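Data card: per-record layout.
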Amino acid sequence: MREGLHKIVSLDETIVAISTPTGRSGIGVVRISGRDARLLGQKFLKTKSALEHRRVVVGSWHDEQDRCVDEVVATFFQSPHSYTGEDVLEISAHGNPLILGRIVAIVCGAGARPAAPGEFSLRAVANGKMDLIQAEAVRDFIDAQTQRQAQIARSQMAGTLSNRLRPAKEKLIDGVARLEAGIDFAEDDVEVPDNRGIAQEVGSVIQSLEEIQKTFGYGRLLSEGLRVAIMGKPNVGKSSLFNRLVAADRAIVTEIPGTTRDVLTETVDMEGIPLRFADTAGVRETSDRVEKIGVIKAFEALSDANLALVVLDGSMALDDDDQQVLLRAKGVPHVVVINKCDLTEAVTSRSLNGSVTVRVSAKTGAGLDLLSGAIREFLLERQSDVADDFVLTSARQNESMLRAIVALREGVAALGDQVPHEMVLLNLYDALSALGELTGEVVTEDILDRIFSTFCIGK
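The structure for this 459-residue chain is written out next.
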């Protein structure tokens, strides 16, 4: 087992879970992992074929009283050549939750226990079948909503990011070893590393890690989606624009001011990034209690947004309500959308203080391609040069990377100040520890809880 995980993960127990989604389907899969997986199969699976590694057998699953529960197809994977690194038995039965639950109950009655969320992947990490970055990628691959998300997750599962980190870690370990040798054998004429040379080597590691860390901005958009708030006063056409952008009649559209009272959201795919559009209540001074709550929620949506679309009625001169929205949007990247361009124009770009401006007609669809282009440009500006190969996709990964970079910068500064090498080593070890947490070589129960609690049961 990977060092450190033996105190957190117990591999003595055999675990079982339904690995297919809740609901009825043609086929459902029950997964068993642990040292008793083969024995449980031999006990309850009636088949003419033996359970051999990677061999598919057809038979029937029986209970303790030898009553047939279902006709099944079973596949056995022998340790260490399985997903978890343990003996694994996968049982494909009819996708009736009642039947699948019955199979799980029979296995639990014979000594196994229900698996916790992500426990199969956790055991894979514990047995060295993958690292924590790859485990997170498994979750991201399952949760992917766009082809781009799936592509990046698949690349991470193959170890792209882990492999990119390896040379930097090896160079850092080599530097630590030479510093240690210079300290331990100083009296034996062992050459003490030159501070300037060590600082240059550590500096190259910092540069490599910084290139990876810069991908997090794009990676966060990729994993969380781009939050786009559609803002404006009542009756400027926000809901009509929202319906156009999501290509569905999701929002109620009327000529009555204040129709939208709450935040309505919908997600679409652009360049592989989920765009989470939020149609908000019209912003204006009002005595209506419900409408006031809607305005508050609109400003909350604006504060949470990565991008705002400030919608103005192009057929009318700007008023105080328009100015309030424009003022609030200054703190957020935004595009000013001048709607109703099919009517006589009354709004000029000179009144918008140089903001990116697009003229559209939510009624006719004119200009929507230009608006999509402006949003696409916003995305491309945040895409790293190396994002095609790998990205940091979680806050945990980014936090570990930043801690490593900070520790190494402190080490370089200490070398420049002629601080004793014993103190410099503390910085380098802190950096190695942070990188170890990133990949899972150094783990704590808190880190594992943060990652695997977000997994589905059965994976």
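Known properties of this structure: The longest helix spans residues 160-184. The radius of gyration is 29 Å.

See the next section for split statistics.
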